[in-house]
Amino acid sequence: MNQSNISIPKHINDFLDWIDIEKGLSSKTQENYRRFLEKFLVWLKKSKLDSLLPHQLTPEHIWDYRVYLSRHSPTHNNQPLKKITQNYYLIALRSLLGYFVAKDILSIPPEKITLSRPDKEKTVKFLTLEQLQKLFLTPNTSTIQGLRDRAILETFFSTGMRISELTSLNREQIKIKPTTNDIELGIVGKGGRARTVYFSKSTVEWLKKYLDARDAQDDKEKALFINYSGRKSAPRRLTPRAIEKNLKKYIILTGLPITTTPHVLRHSFATDLLTQGVDLRVIQEFLGHKNILATQIYAHVTNKRLKDIHQRFHGKNKN
């Protein structure tokens, strides 16, 4: 059958196979694209366009869909979709048009779909070195739970890991030798992308103290970071939710911003490197970002710093 004569909704499954096989996108990304395109299919049906062929799709249709996203597609709490969320739906549709191009199916080009300007510039929440030091000193390191939590906080800031990457670490991956001052570790992160993360001397010291305490208890658990509460029969690997809960407890104790999350510690890692003059492309590698645009959100830190320097020193001696 000529694929150009197949209605747009019937192309979706083939499109998802294409981004899996040809683009190598993760199953989670495929799931997100399916969910984003579902809204487009709902709009087609409401507009009595569910039999629309790819070549029949017009810029006017795209505009009407954008109006639908902006005004007639509320969230679960009856609020309009944010501009950045609308863009996710548009990116998915643009990718579908890219699939049509790749398969020589006549349709409007993907670049005809432009993205909405965000409601406001996205800024990054991060902690200063002074705030981080205050946070690090909060866990009670006379207990094994406190040693674990100190090691977790140090690891977040030293490596810039995502919380899912940190909780998946196993004890056997941490090779600490008597002469070891730091550790390099290969991990596989989001999207199946491999990268190397680096544990500082301070982090290695706290990991050693924590693991020594585990050895003293003859602990043979596989996971690096484990739970010390709950049922004995329950899995002991610490979950992201448990880490978030512990961090919130320490944040409250120290009086730091309540919006601080494990991801804020990842932001703090990247922001610290940037303020030390590390190139954005290098930070992209450290964070495991596929696209430099994902790392670009940290540029505002440098921009603000330059602005402050300019205001402080430019024309200082001018009459």
Automatic annotation (TrEMBL):
Gene3D superfamilies: 1.10.150.130, Intergrase catalytic core. The keyword DNA-binding applies. Residues 122-311 form the Tyr recombinase domain. Belongs to the 'phage' integrase family. PANTHER family: INTEGRASE_RECOMBINASE PROTEIN MJ0367-RELATED, PHAGE INTEGRASE-RELATED. SUPFAM superfamilies: DNA breaking-rejoining enzymes, lambda integrase-like, N-terminal domain. GO terms for molecular function: DNA binding. It holds the Pfam family Phage_int_SAM_1. The keyword DNA-binding applies. One of its GO terms (biological process) is DNA recombination. Residues 6-101 form the Core-binding (CB) domain. It comes from the Bacteria. This is Tyrosine recombinase XerC. Keywords: DNA integration, DNA recombination, DNA-binding.
